[in-house]
Amino acid sequence: MNNLIKKLIINCKSAFQTILNTNSTTSVISCYDCPMAPKYLQLADMLRIEARKIAENGGNRLPTEMEISSIYSVSRQTVRNALSLLERDGTISRRQGSGSYINKRQKENGTRQIAVITTFIDDYIFPSILHDAQSIFAENGFSTLVYATGNNVFREREILKELLSRDISGILIEGSRTALPTPNEELFDEIRKQKIPILFLHGLCSLHESFPYIMDDNEAGGKQLAKHLIAKGHRKIGGIFKSDDIQGPMRYYGMISAMLDAGLNVEDRRICWYDTLDRTDIIGDTSYDRLDRFIKERLTDSTAVICYNDEIAYNLVKRLLDMGKKIPEDVAVVSFDNSFYSHIGPVPITSIGHRMKAGKAAADMLLSVLRGEEPDSVRMPWELHQRASS
Questions:
Q1: Positive or negative: CA dihedral 68, 34, 373, 120
Q2: 344-384: per-residue pLDDT in tens?
Q3: Which site among 13, 51, 162, 304 is 20 to 30 Å from 352 CA-CA?
Q4: Which of 156, 155, 133 lies closest to 144, judged by CA?
């Protein structure tokens, strides 16, 4: 990965650098760990935890504003802003000249924490999603616990077990290996029984369909890219798709649906499938062996390729150029996400993206579930951004 890409990713990750510096498979942050959070939000997080401890020990009041200011070394205005937030979310009631009293429901409901479970924290699209979601949660008085599964269903299992033993308000989860049956069905059933609000992000396997979700309209996206290439005159279209997350099969299905509708043949030899463990052989972290074999052995007569995401497309463009191919004259390349990868390469990449911010939309939806509402699940539409690669 070149230095420019690293700098772009690091800029996105400044809000949770602690996570990236740990080798742990499970990482946890909350608002007071986040250097981007205003001081009053950080203080509110700590006071919320303190209020619960006081309530559990039979107390009913927080320290005075002056005492809090001294204990936490913050200004009186910061204290007032934090207490106002706690009053709005129902943690305390403030009485003029008397102090801040802890509401009884604080003892019953515990801390206001939302768990965010993702596959990879350092995935190039996740930092902005987490930042947007965490900001919305913080504005509404919730701290955030962040976990990474590595797209491993058994790590996901351990995380779900831990969360079932914790006092949390809700779960936002990017499921692991969603194209495959999950061995964690009984844990999701237990989450439902305990009435813990849960929202799925990006991927949703068939066993989870009764849960609310917000995800890409992957089939429609595959169709959109294929139709774009067909309109450009391409008839021999290849593809690179991820096999173990549901996004991959659905994007592939959209592609072949559009090709069949246009009366084109779909040849399996032009499709490259990879899973989570194969990723480094595709994007060149260790080598480009798998990607090079695909280009040399299976793309020999393809005039266009649809890539699973911009990261794949960026690396494919580099390898094609290294092999003396011209883009788009010899091979057109298109992809999903409309991320920075689609702008920074030697040939800007045609890609589809969303107007809607997934992190904000997911946070808003989960908060509505927490309020007892039943929001409709969302499949986010795509819009095409045409560039030089097609």
A1: negative
A2: 999 999 999 998 899 999 999 999 998 888 899 999 999 99
A3: 13
A4: 133
Cβ atoms within 10 Å, residue 35: 10
Separation between Cα atoms, residue 140 and residue 298, nearest integer Å: 52
Cis peptide before 197 (omega within 30 of 0): no
Per residue in 5-56, pLDDT tens? 444 444 444 434 433 333 333 344 444 444 445 678 778 878 877 887 888 7
How far apart CA 67 and CA 76 sit, in angstroms, is: 10
Q: Can you name the residues that pair with 242 across neighbouring β-strands?
A: 274
pLDDT digit string (tens) for 235-291? 999 999 999 999 999 999 999 999 999 999 889 999 999 999 988 888 876 778 889
Structure confidence by residue, pLDDT tens digits, 307-322: 999 999 999 999 999 9
pLDDT, the chain, mean: 85
- 170-173/198-201 β-pairing: parallel
Tokens of 194: 């305990």
Beta pairing class for 143-148 and 113-118: parallel
